[in-house]
Design a protein that fits this description.
Elements lengths: L1 H30 L2 H15 L10 H17 L14 H21 L8 H11 L8 E4 L2 E7 L1 H19 L3 H5 L1 H27 L3 E8 L27 H14 L6 H12 L5 H9 L18 H15 L7 H13 L4 H8 L2
Parallel strand pairs: 2-3
Antiparallel strand pairs: 1-2
Helix pairs in contact: 1-4, 1-6, 2-4, 3-4, 3-8, 4-5, 4-8, 5-6, 5-8, 8-12, 8-14, 9-10, 9-12, 12-13, 13-14
């Protein structure tokens, strides 16, 4: 029996890996031509409409506008149940990314950087905002940002890396995989939030002097310069068992449903659907289901999510999507989500921005 269980767990891991790889490659294929397309389109637009060139004062409205547009794009996604159904969202996610790149370009124009806006600069800003070091593309030299130009082959690898990061974030949403209608609201919050985060990073970088290196790099060893951004640690962290984030999320969902002192039949059905598809043993599923009838809040250590930013962001958007399931966003739900977000290490400003979608 032990051997059989081991094989089953391996099969589940292979399925997850295949899903992530499939989504990553589908998205990367769609993204390959986006950068040159955006640079070409926006450059022509401003050449033909010089009176439309924005100024620094208009940057907040540029970010807000693109955030709202992407919210509407993602909110209209027709998801289908199951993790593989997320592959159907690739065209909409591609459009969201295209809008985000156009936003970076527009912000660059506002700061008078039209002469240096190339695909490497756009990609470097995007990666930095997604929590990945862009040291292979953007280098700080004193107070100046140096942009490194790379060959087509190297840039294609960069795009695959970017697609993997976006895919990783998408797959953290439990709601989007199993509750399609509610999941669309969660995706809308995700796209608005990430757009605004990219806008903030674009301002941070584009405010500085920027220079583009003349020589194009063809050596793929440059890829070693990309790494996940890690928070500074004052002391070594001992090895520990990875928390079951899915179980913690479901407990948080149950608490959110309880904030009005009652779980409706529809709400119970939502939770039961999520529990049913959770990859845990039957006894654990029964324990989770029974928690819906337990009085009071269930203890959830939200600080555990602080160690995994993608898990934290995924839970934040799922909570928002679930809270807005009936078209309303009650004060008690907002308070609970704010408390959870803060405990996960998300800034109050970012929480407010995500809830405003």
């Amino acid at each position: 029996m032990v051997k059989s269980n081991d094989v089953s767990e391996q099969d589940q891991e292979i399925t997850k890996e295949n899903l992530a790889q499939k989504l990553q490659m589908q998205l990367a294929e769609k993204m390959m031509g986006l950068f040159d397309l955006v640079v070409s389109d926006r450059s022509k637009y401003y050449q033909n409409n010089p009176d439309k060139v924005p100024d620094p004062a208009s940057v907040p409205s540029i970010i807000s506008s693109y955030g709202n547009v992407n919210m509407l794009v993602s909110g209209g996604i027709s998801l289908i149940p199951g993790p593989w159904g997320m592959a159907a969202a690739v065209p909409e996610v591609t459009l969201v990314i295209r809008n985000q790149l156009a936003m970076i370009y527009d912000i660059g124009m506002a700061y008078g950087k039209g002469q240096v806006l190339n695909k490497e600069l756009l990609a470097g800003i995007f990666l930095s905002a997604m929590g990945t070091s862009a040291g292979a593309l953007l280098i700080m030299h004193g107070g100046t940002v140096l942009v490194r130009r790379v060959s087509l082959r190297v840039f294609q690898r960069v795009v695959i890396l970017m697609a993997g990061k976006v895919t990783q974030q998408m797959l953290k949403s439990l709601i989007s995989k199993w509750l399609p209608v509610i999941g669309a609201a969660a995706m809308a919050a995700w796209s608005s939030y990430t757009t605004r985060q990219i806008g903030k990073k674009a301002v941070e970088i584009l405010e500085k002097p920027i220079e583009v290196e003349a020589e194009e790099i063809e050596d793929e060893s440059i890829m070693a310069g990309f790494a996940e951004a890690q928070p500074a640690k004052s002391e070594p962290v001992p090895t520990e068992v990875t928390p079951d984030y899915t179980v913690l999320k479901i407990k948080a969902f149950i608490n959110l449903m309880k904030v009005d002192k009652k779980i409706t039949t529809e709400e119970r059905s939502h939770i039961e659907t999520l529990i049913e598809h959770t990859e845990i043993d039957t006894e654990a599923k029964i324990e989770l289901a029974n928690l819906m009838d337990v009085e009071g809040k269930i203890p959830v250590d939200f600080s555990l999510f602080g160690k995994e930013p993608d898990e934290a962001v995924g839970l934040l958007f799922d909570l928002i999507g679930l809270a807005k399931r009936d078209g309303e966003f009650h004060l008690s739900e907002k308070i609970y989500i704010k408390q959870a977000g803060k405990l996960m290490g998300i800034s109050e400003h970012d929480i407010e921005g995500a809830m405003a979608t």
